[in-house]
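Researcher: I'd like a candidate sequence for this fold, 289 residues long. If you have to choose between options at a position, lean toward the conservative one.
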């Protein structure tokens, strides 16, 4: 069996919704391209082509006895077939998460909630650099914030919504959750992104309580909206020994809760934006075809 055989099988497998393939080279280029083109008519196909440089190409050829091909040839073939190209294993994972957990997204207007001041600013930059529009909050949400916290309204709360400046009273009244719900219900946004804060001066118990509340809000809102929602939660690379650390144990548990609720979770904003903008491009192309 070779790569074309697996593609042909997975194309018609009813339990496979997304195909992800690591390829070093192919034995029959024409058959592979035909199989890839047919597969993309039925479901998203993500290709990670290894051996893109000279040394990598030689290494791939040495242990696969297959035609590795030039990078330009591969990129052209993958694009023409309608597949999505991944840059590395982490990027492929993020693409699989996007296509598995997000519905078709056709627009790039993003609403961002959560994180401290610096995190919010950097997040806005990264989403815009990827091709998204970080649009202003709609009037109805501005009015709700103004009525609830008039002292914070003018010039303070905007998209991205910086939760770190909310006073304790607002946190106790779950204003952050209310803002997130209003943004998820607003036609003003095509995608909602929640940044879960992992740093800050919080103790283990405070972090656990804050994170649990944020995750509960996100899951509850996701159940009652069709709006695409994603979460940025950077737990780092955790090992078994990290589960003795209350902070990382809490974050790992809440990440598992989000995934169980079928919510797309990414380690960083730039990785999320890079993957989701390609999902948008994929579905936009399909509406044109």
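Model: Candidate sequence:
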């Amino acid at each position: 069996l070779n790569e074309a055989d697996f593609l042909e099988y997975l194309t018609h497998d009813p339990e496979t919704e997304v195909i992800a393939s690591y390829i070093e080279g192919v034995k029959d280029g024409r058959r592979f391209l035909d199989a890839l083109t047919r597969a993309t008519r039925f479901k998203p196909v993500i290709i990670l082509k290894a051996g893109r440089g000279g040394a990598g190409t030689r290494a791939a050829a040495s242990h696969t006895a297959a035609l590795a091909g030039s990078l330009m040839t591969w990129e052209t073939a993958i694009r023409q077939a309608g597949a999505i190209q991944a840059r590395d294993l982490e990027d492929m994972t993020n693409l699989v998460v996007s296509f598995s957990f997000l519905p078709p997204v056709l627009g790039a207007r993003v609403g961002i909630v959560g994180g401290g001041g610096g995190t919010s600013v950097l997040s806005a930059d990264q989403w815009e650099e990827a091709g998204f529009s970080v649009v202003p909050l709609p009037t109805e949400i501005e009015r709700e914030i103004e009525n609830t916290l008039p002292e914070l309204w003018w010039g303070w709360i905007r998209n991205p919504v910086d939760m770190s400046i909310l006073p304790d009273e607002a946190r106790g009244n779950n204003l952050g959750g209310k803002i997130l719900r209003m943004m998820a219900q607003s036609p003003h946004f095509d995608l909602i992104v929640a940044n879960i804060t992992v740093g800050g001066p919080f103790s283990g118990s405070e972090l656990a309580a804050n994170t649990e509340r944020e995750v509960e809000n996100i899951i509850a809102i996701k159940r009652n909206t069709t709006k695409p929602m994603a979460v940025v939660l950077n737990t780092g690379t955790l090992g078994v020994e990290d589960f003795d650390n209350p902070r990382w144990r809490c974050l790992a548990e809440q990440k598992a809760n989000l995934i169980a609720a079928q919510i797309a979770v990414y380690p960083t904003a730039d990785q999320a934006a890079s993957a989701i903008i390609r999902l948008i491009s994929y579905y936009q192309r399909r509406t044109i075809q």
